[in-house]
Amino acid sequence: MNTIKSWAEEDRPREKMLSKGKDALSNAELIAILIGSGNNKESAVDLSKRILRDHKDNLIEISALSINDLIKYNGIGVAKAVSITAALELGRRRRFSEALERPCIKNSKIAFEYFYAHLSDLNHEQFWIMLLNNANKVIKLEKIGIGGLSGTTADPKKIFKSALENNAASIMLCHNHPSGNIIPSEADKRITNTIVKAAHFLEIKILDHIIVGNNIYFSFADEGIL
Q1: CA distances from 224 to 16, 130, 211 (A)
Q2: Averaged over 166-184, what is the pLDDT?
Q3: Rounded to whole angstroms, how far apart are CA atoms 193 and 67?
Q4: Tens of pLDDT along 27-64?
Q5: How far apart are CA 204 and CA 102, in angstroms?
Q6: Are 43 and 52 in contact (CB under 8 A)?
Q7: What's the whole-model pTM score?
Q8: What are all long-range contacts of 137-142, with beta carbons under 8 Å and residues at least 24 apart?
């Protein structure tokens, strides 16, 4: 096996980062730094490339892997699997921290960033709400319902109870589609319509319903179907 130690020094991931900066490294090279070594047939970089290739070169898919999923790879033990998982979790938390710095919700993209920090990497559906004041500043994010692989429930009574208790002027709705398909189902449209009608009588605005996929989203408001 052609090990990393046998490579030219400027091509080794650690040395490459020191000399050229972190942006010069591929995803495989960054993961290789985390795991340190490969197995008796693959270097750390080659092993990292195989893990990425098995998951469409998509870090979001890899971040959804469990420790047990990762240790199935020859050369990845518990300690290395924990390092990979911890690094990806830090990335997720950084994204959430960046979202929290935004003072108000001006569009669906900003709302998506808030919700995505809670809904990324899930293999089941969850329904969340965002409560806002008159200035569209976030009062609270709250999980309303948990479902399975293909559906979740959203109880309007629970949604409006929370809105009234927190003096919310408006609400944003959100749920995820673990399949990655962000097109709303007929059930999604029905529950949205039900909540919008109920909100009208309580003089609370429903600003949007966002469906979260794999780093993408669908906005009912942007599509003009709210």
Answers
A1: 48, 20, 14
A2: 92
A3: 40
A4: 999 999 999 999 999 999 999 999 999 998 988 889 88
A5: 23
A6: no
A7: 0.59
A8: 137/103, 137/104, 137/105, 138/104, 138/105, 138/114, 139/166, 139/167, 139/168, 140/166, 140/168, 141/114, 141/115
